[in-house]
Amino acid sequence: MTPTATPTRREQILKEAARLFAERGFHGVGVDEIGAAVGISGPGLYRHFAGKDAMLAELLVGISEQLLEGGRRRTEGAAGVAPEAVLDSLIAGHIDFALDDRPLITLHDRELDRLRDADRKRVRRLQRQYVELWVEAVRRLYPEFDEPAARATVHAVFGLLNSTPHLGRPGALPGRAGMSELLHRLARGAFAAGAGAPARG
């Protein structure tokens, strides 16, 4: 979860659960360990969540909802905004997620199939809606893209941006600002290359 200035106890639990699940796998973490990470007993977690399955569902559904909501905010009123600015805003928002919520990327890749059918379908539906926001923004800036090519390129750019958990030790990478700028340039370059256009920005 993206941190807030004063996280609630539920948010604290979810943040630690995401970290532990990402580090050791869903089945490698017990409720007692999650409780200890936030300073409460394992059984005390059940006042907030029905169990680990509920935590995992809230993490993966929740981040999908947040990405879609953020994407919608960034594309509202796009008709009156330069297409380049809209796409840059979407890229910047996703980079914030990729740099700040790395455990959730690992969780999605590794644990999505553990969700109940209804929750997994909800995640997929939210993700499809998020992708379509990008497809529309990309095609406004690069009208030479047809829909299938734009959609494929959006997915490829997500793969690029979501590679952050696999980029090595933090100390071996540029600082956050430098990494953000690098990822942004790479994403814009990928879209330009996909459209056969000169890179912009």
From TrEMBL:
Where does the record place the HTH tetR-type domain?
7-67
State the UniProt keywords alphabetically: DNA-binding
Q: Which domain of life is it from?
A: Bacteria
**Positions of the DNA-binding region:** 30-49
Q: Which PROSITE patterns match?
A: HTH_TETR_2
A Pfam family it matches = TetR_C_24
Output the InterPro entries linked to this UniProt entry: Homeodomain-like_sf (IPR009057), HTH-type_TetR-like_transc_reg (IPR050109), HTH_TetR (IPR001647), KstR2_TetR_C (IPR041490), Tet_transcr_reg_TetR-rel_C_sf (IPR036271)
Membrane spanning stretches: none
Alphabetical list of PANTHER family matching this protein = HTH-TYPE TRANSCRIPTIONAL REGULATOR RUTR, TRANSCRIPTIONAL REPRESSOR MCE3R
- Stated name of the protein: TetR/AcrR family transcriptional regulator
Organism equals Streptomyces odorifer
